[in-house]
Fold each of these.
Amino acid sequence: MTVRVGVIGAGWIGQEHIRRLTHTVTGARVTAVTDIDAARAQDAAAPVDARVLPDGAALIASAEVDAVLVTSWGPTHAEHVLNAIAAGKPVFCEKPLATTAEDCLRIVEAETAHGRRLVQVGFMRRYDTGYRQMKKVIDSGRIGEPLIVHCAHRNPAVPESYTSAMAALDTAVHEVDVLRWLLDDEIVSAQVLTPRATSRRFAHLKDPQIMLFETARGVRIDLEVFVNCQYGYDIQCETVGEEGLVRLPDPAAVGVRTAASHSTEVLTDWVGRFRDAFDTEFREWIAGVAAGDAPTGPSAWDGYAATVITAATAEALECGHVVATDLKPRPAFYGGTA
Ligand SMILES: NC(=O)c1ccc[n+]([C@@H]2O[C@H](COP(=O)([O-])OP(=O)(O)OC[C@H]3O[C@@H](n4cnc5c(N)ncnc54)[C@H](O)[C@@H]3O)[C@@H](O)[C@H]2O)c1
Ligand SMILES: O[C@H]1[C@H](O)[C@@H](O)[C@H](O)[C@@H](O)[C@H]1O
């Protein structure tokens, strides 16, 4: 069966995923595209022979759409995801699931009432080979109980529209998700320290930031978010356990020795760094939809947790104190005990 996908939002990542679904993933075809910018929708739809539909509601209702991909702006996600659940169609939503805890909970309630998982959230790091290897090592017990995690998330530069709160909401959100999954633990509090600011930033921005998280089992996480680091796109993660440590590998790159130096290239953006992870994420999602299986990737509950934890982190930046995340108990529908 070919899964016919409708795409809502044909911007940067929407276009990336349209290309991916068309040229990389087998068993999928993009049949419909919509964007509030009609010209952009047309430009994205034409090369893949997809139909342009007037809005998200029309796309979700279309008989030519089996599954929905939401890649519009964050504040619009909840409406599209809720419409897809009402239509009983599988929906893949790029992060964030929604921008408020209330909207995330509306999605959780709607999916629970539907009685079967339909929603997957686009946290692609869970599909990265290095993170998957780290998880295997942690789960095997080889490094003993995890105690501390050291992370860095560095972007070369960000535009003027990027705000200090986005360091948590837009950037650290990836670590928040992948660490909850890696450690199989919940983040219970957040704190943010602001070192001396880099001169290579727009004046309104607090950059870099050091985020400190604590999990329910007492693991401490430090995360440097530095979005004007200049030198490249660099993701680091090291988990220290009672009997050893495991470190995320850097992407494979040839070593060059010349003129009395040894160097390897550092990537410059997330598109290249996580290309393989995005490919695997979409291959697995499409295979599941084609087989009629419920999604196994990041759930609406994970989307809710990420939104709540990153909001608490942004609040911690503002107030300078430790902020409790105060997550609701995980419902049984999502593997919890509540
Ligand atoms: N997983 C990742 O690493 C990753 C990377 C980049 C972006 N994202 C997420 O993907 C989403 C899109 O980001 P982007 O960088 O592509 O943004 P973008 O601004 O390039 O594209 C968004 C597009 O959505 C359209 N749009 C907005 N509201 C709409 C609506 N209601 N209906 C139809 N179209 C609508 C806009 O016109 C625009 O073309 C964001 O939520 C972002 O956080 C995820
Ligand atoms: O939306 C992007 C994307 O999620 C990247 O993976 C992250 O490194 C950036 O900081 C963020 O702005």
Note: The radius of gyration is 20 Å.
Amino acid sequence: MKEIESILYTEEVIKEKCYELGKKISEDYSGELLVVGILKGAVPFMAELIKRIDLPIIIDFMDVSSYEGTTTSGEVRILKDLEFRVEGRDVLIVEDIIDTGLTLSYLTEVIKKRGAKSVEICSMLTKPKRRKVYVNAKYVGFEIDDKFVVGYGMDYNEKYRNLPYVGILSESVYK
Ligand SMILES: O=P(O)(O)OC[C@H]1O[C@H](OP(=O)(O)OP(=O)(O)O)[C@H](O)[C@@H]1O
Ligand SMILES: Nc1nc2[nH]cnc2c(=O)[nH]1
């Protein structure tokens, strides 16, 4: 696709990473795990990951928003809340990408305050150079540079989520 400058991770590579992460997660927990996907970007990654988790799990979703185009407003809003109560549960938040960290630091606090037994993060990607607030992500797929990426759930103005790979979006699309 001409809008994609280069492909960073193919479907095969992402699936292999999900296998590794799922194995670690399965080893780290013993009982039931509440897996919380953050809409919408986490959906393809979460679909792949949960198949590799060998534990009794419950899945739920939250929708929060802080991005418009390629910039963050810095303010996190809950657009859709969880169906299940988190009190006393082990919670694993699943994300597509950690950028400034604002979304996940906010969400982790919200879920802890609601009385979860534990809260951990599993993110497909992280951009450490962009961090504004500290986020303790126990499970991370890949570290990337400060480039705007799309595909495998990630969008630019709602487009490209269906690409079966993660690629760098050409600057000509948004400049
Ligand atoms: O670390 P941060 O700077 O907070 O950025 C990360 C957040 O940005 C993206 O979501 P977005 O708001 O674009 O929603 P989407 O998943 O529906 O695309 C991504 O899925 C994370 O939730
Ligand atoms: N699609 C997309 N969303 C983001 N949110 C924060 N960083 C990114 C990124 O690189 N790509």
Note: The first strand starts at residue 4 and ends at 9.
